[in-house]
Amino acid sequence: MKNQLTHAIEDYLKAIYALSVEGEAASTTALAAELNIAPASVTGMLKRLAETTPPLVEYRKHRGANLTPDGERAALEVIRHHRLLETYLHQSLGFPWEDVHEEACRLEHVISEAFEERIDAVLGHPTHDPHGDPIPSPNLVMPQEASIPLSTLRPPQVTTIQRVNANDADLLRYLDEKSLVPGSKLEVRAFSPFDGNLTISIEGAEMVVGPAITHHIFVEEED
Amino acid sequence: MKNQLTHAIEDYLKAIYALSVEGEAASTTALAAELNIAPASVTGMLKRLAETTPPLVEYRKHRGANLTPDGERAALEVIRHHRLLETYLHQSLGFPWEDVHEEACRLEHVISEAFEERIDAVLGHPTHDPHGDPIPSPNLVMPQEASIPLSTLRPPQVTTIQRVNANDADLLRYLDEKSLVPGSKLEVRAFSPFDGNLTISIEGAEMVVGPAITHHIFVEEED
DNA sequence: ACACTAATTTAGGCAAGACTAAACTTTATT
DNA sequence: AATAAAGTTTAGTCTTGCCTAAATTAGTGT
Ligand SMILES: [Mn+2]
Ligand SMILES: [Mn+2]
Ligand SMILES: [Mn+2]
Ligand SMILES: [Mn+2]
Asked: How far apart are CA A162 and CA B67, in angstroms?
């Protein structure tokens, strides 16, 4: 059962997990883009992943890939490592939040279960990483949470930032400066049609933010 | 200058460093034993390491390998990572000292300079790892320290444990139990010829230890 | 000097993971 | 339904890092 997965395989599984939300298969090109690998290479790897014992993905030519239960478990294990590491790097080692992803992406493949347990304990069993993404439980269940893009809100509206979905370090640094981080309360004051700008007030300050930003910020869902 | 070294290469350089104390070249077999790799494979790697730009080792057929200045710098960088990590795992994350080596051996190849600096700062710039080995300075100078095997002492003698040289986890666990760790003061009370046993008192307790143990314990040198 | 042994190298192979170029499907457009 | 565009797969190569078996070299004792 405990077959040693390579770093490469773990990254593939993680990417497939991320791209196959809602049961949709992850396409070859999407994976290639996500992983920065040529599409041809992805095809090769998907075939291998579908033929391991036990198979880690279900793969149909030209249709893309889905994780098998085994594959999903392996993916969640890596994601748990990743998110715990991000949290640890940020909270305990003082890494700026825009830097944690890259470091965690290397460490995630290498830490032992003992390491995982220790940082989990030191952090007090956190439920979310610094970007607001939920951390899978020790028995690998991913908490299901609903949130909607800030870009879809219309004034007047008060809400709280749940999650920030961005990889670009510069954008993350900017968001941090403006307090556009998980936990921040904000009020949507105005909406401009055509350009989709929102006027919001957050932490006492008022600001206008365009869709290139509001698209990446997820807030609590209304009832 | 900053060529990306692979994990495998880093482990070779570290092993060559360890085996080539006093300028002696590291032999193929010794490296093979240290790295758990077939001698033939070691030969192949040594040739590659001697032909990189810049060369990392100086290699002469049947004569073994020495590090070039570039190779030594790379080795010291990895050793610094390793020893800082061991210290961190032990002190900050509460890993038992017999487990830190294995974990550090994987992490050492993967942490960034930022990570290195953070844990160094959190630990207060430690000079020695949990086994008493000196940590190379940030600019990669290895402190030179003299110590002698406990097995060479003869009563009566009082000394302090400086360093423990062992990889076996069971032995390390045992030593820890008996307070045979760096920093412990001890008194050599008696020596048995033929079997080489030493009677020592440490932390109030008296005990007899054989050469299989005293060989691995290094104490401060007399003047 | 010679032969035996231990250490080392050579030769040939394999698996993982990547790439490019070319061929082929699927999907979208007209 | 025909065709163009986009997406995907096949085929062939490369590098890294390891392996085993066989050949060779160095070192030692006589
Ligand atoms: Mn990764
Ligand atoms: Mn884990
Ligand atoms: Mn290592
Ligand atoms: Mn470093």
From this structure: 52
B111–A107 CB contact, under 8 Å: yes
A-B contacts (CB, under 8 Å): 40
Burial class (CB in 10 A: 0-12, 13-18, 19+), B206: exposed
Q: Amino acid letter at A135?
A: I
Q: Which residue's entry shows tokens 């305990």? A: A92
CA distance readout (Å), A155 to A151, A180, A192, A198, A213: 11, 18, 10, 9, 17
B82-to-B66, B117, B170 alpha-carbon distances in Å: 21, 13, 21
Q: For residue range A125-170, list pLDDT tens digits in order.
A: 999 999 999 999 999 999 999 999 999 999 999 999 999 999 899 9
Listed in sequence order, the residues at least 6 apart from A108 whose beta carbon sits closer than 8 Å to its beta carbon are A10, A78, A81, A82, A85
CB B186 within 8 A of CB B175: no
Q: In whole angstroms, what is the distance from residue A180 CA to residue A216 CA?
A: 10
Nucleotide nearest residue B41, measured CA to C1': D18
d(CA B66, CA B21): 10
pTM of this structure: 0.93
Distance, Å, B44 CA → C16 C1' = 19
Instruction: List, as ranges, residues with CB under 5 A of the ion ligand 3.
Output: B 11, 105
